[in-house]
Amino acid sequence: MKRYLSGLALGPLALLGACAVQPVYQRPPLKIVDAWSNAPGVPSEPTALERDGWWTLLGDAAIDPLVAAGLADNPTLADAAARVDQARAALTTQDAARRPAAGVDASLSRSRDRGDDGMTSSSSGSVGASLSWELDLWGRLR
């Protein structure tokens, strides 16, 4: 019985000892580039394969119209940024209905009349201001 128990005790110790035989990990050196080739604001030039049609190397005629459609329909980064700006402007316009509205109006009129006693002229002017705000009690403007 003692032999059996000692065998059971030595088995897990042997397995744990096998884990301790690993070599010490050495981190490989990391290569860091000095500058990115596609830094923001610097247009990247297409490579020769992008210009010349790398997909033609595959020799499949079915790929040509697919790549042409993808290149024609895919927006560039500038197009995507313009769409984001357009969506923000639409959201601002939509949000304007929930804010107060102010207005100013001015008018000036001048008239001349020829009567029996000669020329008469009159001038009139008006200035007005308005401020309105719709209370959204039932959530119509959301």
Task: Explain the layout of strands and helices.
Layout: H1 2-19, H2 48-52, H3 63-73, H4 77-95, E1 101-115, E2 118-132
Antiparallel strand pairs: 1-2
Shape: elongated
Which strands sit side by side, in order, in the main sheet? 1-2
Strand content: 15-25%
Q: Report the uncertain regions.
A: none
**Secondary-structure content class:** alpha+beta
Average pLDDT, all residues: 78
Cα radius of gyration in angstroms: 40 Å
How helical, in percent, are the residues? 25-40%
Q: Treating each run of at least 4 consecutive H or I residues as one helix, how many helices? A: 4
Largest sheet features: 2 strands, antiparallel
Walk me through the structure:
The protein is an alpha+beta fold and 142 residues long. The chain is built from 4 helices and 2 strands, in the order ααααββ. Strands 1-2 form a two-stranded antiparallel ribbon. 0% of the residues are buried.
